Amino acid sequence: MTEYGRGYGSESWHHEDPLYGESYGDQGAYGGQASYGNQDPYAGQQPGWGAPGPEQQHHYEYDAYGQAVQPGGVPYDPYGQQPDPYGGAAPDYYGTHDGYPPQHQGRQLRHDQTAPMPVVPPEPQPGDWQGAGHDEPWHDEPPRHEPEPEHAFFSGGDPEDHDAEDDGRAPRGNRRSDRERRGKEQRPKPKRRGRALATVVVLAVLAGGGYLAYDRFGPAPDYEGAGTGSVQVEIPDGSPVLQMGLLLKEEGVVKSADAFTEAVTANAKAEAGLQPGVYTLRKQMSAASAVALMLSPQSRNNLTIPEGSRAVAVYERIDKKLELKTGTTKKVAASQAKNLGLPSWADNDPDIKDPLEGFLYPSTYEVNKKMKPADVLKQMVDRAKQNYARYDLAGQARKLGLDSPLDLVTVASLTQAEGTSHDDFRKMAEVVYNRLDPGNSQTYGKLEFDSTYNYIKNQSELDIPISAIKNYDNPYNTYFYKGLPPGPIGNPGEDALEASIHPTEDGWYYFVAINGKTSFAKTYAEHEKLVQEFNKTR
Question: Who's near 412: CB < 8 A, 6+ residues apart?
Fold first, then answer.
């Protein structure tokens, strides 16, 4: 038997049942005796079906926790052969003995009957203190409206822990539900903030999911055509493809970063061809057109300085990139050289032709039209200092018998200017050091490099008359003066600098370039043979 009044049968208490609608006085209207006193409500049932036998009918007490116990403190077992805990006098909850009975009390049943489902009267309406279908009022006074306890779902507690004993009310079987004892209009509305918040979160997730689904599976927004106008976009070093796309979108070149990413993926040359730098592009281009233009040389705004370039050539490149009048950058270099961050050991000779020579480091720089010549020059000087700092030029110069770090950069510039390939840079550096020795019996301290004469003349000639070169008085003319020129004659690269720090030690003194290949000799006789071979190829 369930604890809610149902018997073992599966059917409900139908209104055609002869026992339906019985009075709740001492005698049922149809002969069934309803017992609310000491009579056994389970009379007529067989033992073993939850109905106690005559010898088991006792009164029970309740302990401090609301549990029914037999005399002596033995706990009551609701499913065994235990006495009826409700056999005693029924408490008067309703003011009169004839009031509506508690749910736990029932009729006397025969052993072949099932326990009926109790009739729950409709809830009263506001101002109406009579139950529907009953002539007598429930109570002499309006029902009490006690605040409904907050459900565990909203209070954070466990719904199973909300026992009757906790709030001082009778156990479930001894009381009517709160819903029966008060008006519907007095019931406080449950707090639904938690549910509302959950609803908002669900809607937000659904909305976000819809966007993600569109973004992931729908076509990426894209422009059509090759675009119009002109815009410069700088792509920083180390930028991934997605960041490139975001920068292009920000500048109005492409419509979405996703479209650009897809275009890069579809172009086999894009992965290796896209490099950092400044690009000249157009507004509102299709992603595919933007990728194709970025891969073309004309879109790149990077400024590349080749190894060995002279300062005057660097100035011309800057003027052209910034679209300035020829000679503008050269004037800025002459007037602002001391403000560009040169190291303290630079420009230590009054005969130096250009203090920036040797410090315009060969590399690729990001340049756009908004930049000024001084900005570009400072980038190059900073790059040179960073690279030179890696080699401890002052310490290396002392080891090699040079006077200053600038002398080592000068040797590197000579090595770079006279060498025709990276393979012979170390041999060329040895030639320089061997000839610088004043006691050598080959040149007696003179370098006699054509490159130094060409530097003075700002030319690159191979066939120079000996009479002209030996009689030209200039500090940079190594045919006229012994030792190194006052400063570098170009801007050496890393390979030439390393070769100048680590020259060979094979005894080389001479070299001749024949058909683009440098041949070296240790004696003057060997050198004459190379000259004859060179004359045959002129």
Answer: 429, 488, 492, 496, 497, 499, 500
